[in-house]
Write a structure and sequence with these properties.
OB fold (Dihydrolipoamide Acetyltransferase, E2P), 14 strands, 4 helices, mainly beta, Thiol Ester Dehydrase, Chain A, 320 residues, single chain, six-stranded antiparallel β-sheet
Length: 320
């Protein structure tokens, strides 16, 4: 009796549990220069990351596994095969959706990094605002010597864009046609670590985490304190005043939900933490570093409301 050929979904599921990388070796040991560059880029002055007893910021976990332009040896063919299968089915676009990290041991300069990765899950067919496709989750176990230091999960969506069907340009919805679902802004990824923040946004509150141990404020939200390691926290509500610490002007790509050029600011709140958001109510070429801004909540459609910043408030402006 002939054995029926596996269905497409069964072929995808067959990749779950298969290795994506085997016995990978970090290109460099954990080292002080890379830690310093990371901390400077992030504006993180935690003394735990400097000096003779320095540790690497936990969020650098994936950094030590990156292969650079030359890649890594030990890469499995399974990942490439899975991508080829998805590409062949028309899911040719890819977007990173979220990642999760678990820290088990601090990494310190001199630690030699090894890692193994596996395809943890391939979802069934999902329809999203971007298009229809499959979520692929890869799990990477990162080791210092023989000791497990942490786990990194990375999730992507391989999809066929929702607007991939050929249509006349005159039929395309305009960038401000908010009644059409295809022109709506992408939704934020909400998980167990940041759900409280978005619940606050729904109440028109901008909530900042506060460590219950050292009372350090932190943003964006994290499962634990990056200053003392405490896992307990509460929140404080931001006053809404801030200044533009830095900014960029976005010209591309022209997604239907956006109308470039527009300014995206790194706003330093009066409480001392920084967040990324749109600067509205002023021409993009008039945004300046040091400009005082004030929080407001802007509705984009019936489901999405986001915190943005408008010139004003009590912050002190500066040059730029």
């Amino acid at each position: 009796m002939a054995v029926p050929s596996p269905t497409y979904e069964e072929r995808l599921k067959a990749y779950e549990g298969r290795a994506a990388a085997v016995a990978g070796v970090g290109k460099d040991p954990v080292n002080e220069p890379m830690i310093r560059h990371w901390c400077e880029a992030m504006g993180d002055t935690n003394p735990a990351y400097a000096g003779p007893d320095a540790m690497a910021p936990p969020t650098m976990l994936q950094v030590w596994t990156m292969g650079g332009l030359s890649g890594h040896t030990g890469r499995s063919e399974a990942y490439d095969e899975l991508f080829a299968l998805l590409d062949g089915a028309g899911y040719t676009s890819v977007v990173a959706t979220d990642c999760e990290q678990e820290y088990l041991r601090p990494l310190r300069p001199g630690d030699e990094i090894t890692f193994d990765a596996m395809i943890e899950s391939v979802s069934g067919r999902k329809t999203t605002k971007l298009g229809t496709g499959h979520f692929v989750t890869t799990r990477m176990d990162v080791r210092a010597g023989e000791e497990l230091a942490g786990t990194h999960r990375f999730r992507i969506l391989k999809y066929a864009p929702a607007q991939s069907k050929q249509r006349k340009r005159t039929e395309q919805p305009g960038p401000k046609d908010r009644s059409n679902p295809k022109s709506r802004r992408p939704r934020p990824v909400i998980n167990r670590d940041n759900a409280g923040f978005w619940e606050g946004v729904a109440r028109h509150q901008l909530l900042i985490q506060r460590c219950s141990g050292c009372e350090a404020l932190r943003f964006p939200w994290l499962p634990g304190c990056n200053a003392c390691g405490c896992l307990e926290w509460d929140t404080v509500e931001a006053s809404g005043d801030g200044t533009v610490y830095s900014y960029v002007v976005m010209h591309h790509p022209p997604f239907p939900a956006f109308d470039p050029p527009y300014a995206v600011g790194l706003v330093e709140l009066s409480e001392g933490v920084r967040m990324v958001s749109n600067v509205v109510g002023v021409p993009y070429d008039k945004v300046r570093i040091g400009m005082p801004v004030r929080l407001e909540f802007q509705r984009y459609d019936e489901e999405l409301e986001l915190p943005v910043f408008r010139p004003g408030g009590t912050g002190e402006g500066g040059g730029g």
